[in-house]
Design a protein that fits this description.
heterotrimer, A mainly alpha, B alpha+beta, C alpha/beta, A: mainly alpha, two-stranded antiparallel sheet, 5 helices, elongated, B: alpha+beta, 2 domains, two-stranded antiparallel ribbon, 10 helices, about 65% helix
């Protein structure tokens, strides 16, 4: 049994459809460097056996990742990582964090408490994410 | 499917085989001795002593005689109850029909193999039992004056009819099981119907398979069955036909003009004080007087020479019934009971 | 796309009661179909009609292009795991595999043996001594190893503990992926089906309430909550599936293809369970004429 680099899990209450969750988990693994170029993603059969989900869900997630240029399917062999996400994002972290700090200060000055800030952020974030994908 | 049928039937077949083997062993061990005793006894007995020998011989062996006869009598019913009724009900009650009827085999074929194999096993078991008992009991049957060969008890448990009974009981069990769908009620109903038919056959059908022989016979000491003189000096008398194995359907005394009578009316020559019927003389002169006065016994019977024809007729009837029930089963199982 | 199950006005009557009535379905191949409904709704009846254990009283049904259980070839195409996973209690596990091998020309003995080994089932054990989960796995193995095109399961996990339940579904999904099966799976709990199914049928009171692809159903059904409103006054394209009101607030489950522009509503997504409950619910609403509506909808593809 090959040890896969990544193990998927599903959160039934996240509000995100299962295939999106899989896509995100792959992207996260790429970002963190857990998955590197050339690594093989678990086979559809493996994912399905582990999570008891519909095979079409996995196929759809892998197709989406392929569409984004992150992975490539080799017929008869498997699906392999072709790009990473690590580099691009790290450099931008610094300035983004500063901007975020400034915004948080603004929000507090406007009178929002912790929960309101979090709610505002999450709803805007989700709506934007759905608009992106649609 | 043959493998599956055998695998499910294995335990029942083993039990039956063991029981038959035990029976066969007992019969094999005691049979030759029995035959020997009978033949030496018959050769040695004198004319008047023979009826004594016959009576003693039968009384000595009455127990085992009744036992083996009971075995052959009960065997078809047991087959119907324990092999027939549960065949389908067991699958329905356990839900396994949902498993086996989804395999790549049609229900019709499933039933055909099950009926054929188990049915043949049933007939074989009954056949072996009947064969063994018929062979072993033949000396005793010859001495069983109260159980004529053509009579219901011996006719049902000798020869080939037990095979047909077993096949019928089996088919009946399967059919009832298919209609009732639960094991215990199916067993009860199968037993009730089978017993009813087994009683109805000798009562209603068998007497008429061939027209019975009617004959008028003189009453003598050799064929006398019963003689009683009541306090009013009326004589009740009955006689049996010479054919000791015959099945007497009706028997009554008739007077000289042919009318049936209950008892012979008293007359001077037939009273205890008369010369013929004085008690200390024995019955022979009295019976001669009765005959001289014109009284006869009119008997309606099926002669024992018809034993084998009747066996074949009855086998045919039960075979037809069995095939009819089987056809009903095949028709019904295609209707998708569930 | 060929249909695995095509039913037209299918119905089954017992005496005076209709266990299933007016059922029209067109289920495409390659799906995992979830059949949901309360106990007594008619799920088992529908599945038995599909595998040929029952004959219809009215209407017709075609499975993989043929009449159910019509001949051995048809029987070979459809695998069935009945409720409570019936097995022969007196037969060993190995005997069950032999049963499959003898009665199915398409039997894959290597697959069966391999699966039994991986599941850790002792071939010499009698089926009556197995646990519920093990019997379910044995029944599933028998259904899969005959290499059907369609596998039908009647509440296969209802009586199983959570671990056995999960293991069963894992095994089922793995087999689905490996052999490209179409599957129809019934349950009275949506949570069993949520992860695995991409096609949904809701059956309540012997009728089909909704049938369609899960993705499309979730995309076209929304929960609207806002100030108290009469549901009958909604725009034309929006069909109300369920409604509930308090003094000040109205919550509706609607089905619509168009986006919802009314700013007074807060629109939120439904989970599959919410969707099923909405169709199973007894909530009715009255329109402005005072008539009661009991909406029943089908998603047209």
């Amino acid at each position: 049994m090959e040890p896969w680099m990544i193990e998927f899990h599903l959160d039934g209450r996240s509000g995100l459809s299962p295939y999106l969750q899989l896509v995100r988990q792959v992207r996260q693994a790429l970002r963190l460097g857990l998955l590197r170029e050339g690594d093989q993603l678990p086979t559809v059969k493996e994912v399905v056996a582990g999570l008891a989900i519909n095979p079409n869900t996995v196929l759809k997630a892998y197709r989406e990742l392929e569409h984004e240029g992150l992975v490539a399917a080799r017929p008869g062999v498997g699906t392999f990582v072709t790009a990473t996400l690590a580099d691009a994002s790290l450099a931008a972290h610094g300035p983004l964090r500063q901007e975020l700090r400034r915004w948080l200060a603004k929000a507090r000055r406007a009178g929002l408490d912790e929960e309101s800030i979090e709610a505002l952020f999450m709803t805007t974030f989700r709506t934007a994410a759905e608009e992106d994908i649609a | 499917m043959i493998w599956l049928t055998w695998r499910q039937f294995r335990a029942a077949a083993a039990m039956m085989a063991a029981a038959l083997a035990a029976l066969a062993a007992i019969l094999a061990l005691t049979g030759p001795g029995l035959a020997h005793d009978y033949s030496t006894g018959i050769a040695a007995c004198t004319q008047s002593g023979c009826s004594d020998f016959v009576r003693h011989f039968f009384n000595d062996h009455q127990g085992p005689f009744l036992a083996v006869t009971a075995v052959v009598l009960v065997l078809p019913a047991l087959i119907g109850l324990f092999w027939g009724a549960p065949l389908i009900t067991r699958e329905l009650e356990a839900g396994t029909h949902q498993l086996v009827w989804n395999q790549s085999i049609t229900r019709t074929r499933w039933l055909a193999v099950k009926l054929a194999l188990t049915g043949v096993a049933a007939m074989t078991a009954a056949g072996l039992g009947s064969l063994a008992v018929t062979w072993w009991s033949s000396p005793i049957d010859k001495t069983a004056t109260n159980f004529p060969k053509m009579g219901p008890l011996l006719f049902d448990t000798r020869g080939i009819v037990p095979i047909a009974y077993a096949a019928f009981a089996f088919a009946l069990g399967v059919t009832v099981g298919m209609l009732v769908r639960r094991t215990l009620p199916a067993m009860a109903i199968t037993l009730a119907v089978f017993v009813a038919i087994q009683i109805a056959m000798p009562l209603l059908v068998r007497p008429h398979l061939l027209p019975p022989t009617r004959s008028t016979i003189e009453i003598t000491t050799s064929n006398l069955d019963d003689f009683t003189m009541g306090p009013d000096h009326r004589i009740r008398v009955s006689a049996k036909p010479a054919d000791t194995g015959a099945w007497v359907l009706s028997s009554h005394t008739v007077d000289a003009s042919g009318h049936a009578i209950d008892s012979i009316p008293p007359s001077p020559s037939l009273s205890p004080s008369s010369r013929a019927c004085a008690p200390q003389q024995g019955l022979s002169p009295c019976l001669a007087e009765v005959t001289r006065l014109g009284y006869r016994q009119q008997v309606t019977y099926q002669p024992s020479s018809r034993f084998w024809p009747f066996q074949w007729y009855e086998t045919g009837i039960y075979t037809a019934l069995t095939l009819g029930l089987a056809g009903l089963c095949f028709w019904r199982i295609r209707r998708r009971l569930s | 796309m060929t249909a695995v199950i095509e039913a037209q006005g299918l119905g089954k009557q017992y005496g005076r009661r209709w266990a299933l009535s007016d059922c029209t379905l067109d289920i495409p191949a390659g799906r995992v179909v979830g059949l949901v409904g309360p106990n007594g709704a008619g799920k088992t009846t529908l599945l038995h009609l599909t595998v040929g254990l029952l004959a219809p009283t009215s209407g017709s049904i075609e499975v993989l292009g043929g009449r159910p259980a019509a001949n051995p070839a048809q029987l070979a195409k459809v695998g069935f795991v009945a409720q409570d996973s019936p097995t022969y209690a007196g037969l060993r596990v190995a005997d069950h595999l032999k049963l499959g091998a003898r009665l199915n020309p398409g039997w894959d003995a290597a697959l069966a043996r391999d699966r039994i080994e991986r599941l850790g089932l002792d071939p010499a054990r009698r089926a009556g001594q197995l646990s519920g989960g093990q019997r379910a796995q044995l029944a599933l193995t028998l259904g899969i190893a005959k290499r059907p095109e369609l596998l039908i399961l009647d509440e296969p996990v209802a009586a199983l503990d959570p671990l056995a339940r999960r293991e069963f579904l894992q095994g089922l999904m793995e087999a689905t992926a490996e052999h490209e099966l179409s599957v129809v799976l019934s349950s009275h709990l949506v949570s069993d089906l949520e992860r695995a199914c991409d096609y949904l049928i809701v059956l309540v009171d012997s009728r089909v309430r909704v049938a369609g692809e899960v993705e499309e159903l979730l995309a076209t059904h929304h929960r609207l909550s806002g100030p108290r409103r009469d549901p009958a006054r909604l725009p034309a394209g929006q069909h109300v599936v369920a409604a509930s009101h308090t003094d000040r607030q109205t919550t509706l489950i609607v089905r619509t293809d168009a986006p919802i522009h009314d700013p007074a509503w807060t629109v939120s997504r439904l989970s599959l369970e919410d969707l099923v409950l909405a169709y199973m619910g007894k909530s009715t609403h009255t329109d402005h004429n005072g008539r009661n509506h009991r909406p029943t909808l089908e998603v047209q593809r």
